[in-house]
Amino acid sequence: MDRTGTLPDRCVACNAAADGYRMRRKLYCSPLAWKIGAVAVPFVALFIGIGTSSELLMASFWPIAILAAIAHLFIRRSLRLEFGVCARHRRLRYALIALSIACMVGVFTGMFGFRAFPGAPLVLLGSLVGLLALVVVQSYAGAQALALRTLSDEHAWLSGTGAPFRSELPELN
Q1: CA-CA distance, 22 to 90, in Å (whole number)?
Q2: Measured on CA atoms in the order 143, 147, 152, 153, is the torsion positive or negative?
Q3: Average pLDDT over residues 132-150
Q4: How confident is the model over 52-74, as pLDDT tens digits?
Q5: Average pLDDT in the 84-110 region?
Q6: pTM to 2 decimal places
Q7: Is the Cα dihedral 100, 145, 156, 20 positive or negative?
Q8: pLDDT band at 143 (very low <50, low <70, confident <90, very high)
Q9: How far apart are CA 124 and CA 114, in angstroms?
Q10: 3-class secondary-structure state, position 157
Q11: What stretch of H or E contains 103?
């Protein structure tokens, strides 16, 4: 899409009418080489430290990882975007948010309820598994899946939109 353009009043997931409902998001992207390097460098230092028995390299894992996370805040690029979401995908989004909150409550109950009731470890484990499953579902379902793939001075490339929505968009010159 054109970086300064607007998206149509259609659901980004299924292309149904959004009826004027617009979600506002600030999406971020960073270069692929940076993502790979920021993840790989701390592990390379850790594995070299293990291989050479260098405690300094092994201990450098967390400082390097924290510095990479801080540097990422300055390297990433952002785009403010408004996009349409239909009633069905709004309901799906709200249901996933409610399930996520319930799982978080379960995690806290499991963590702090070890002495209060014997089933706390199972609640904790089930809630953690539920949260992990919801992370996967939310990254592929509906409006939660919308992501900024690449950003240039003129254009923005989005991912996570549905095929029906993409097929109705005009081609970029």
Answers
A1: 11
A2: positive
A3: 83
A4: 888 888 889 999 999 999 999 99
A5: 91
A6: 0.70
A7: negative
A8: low
A9: 9
A10: strand
A11: helix 87-112
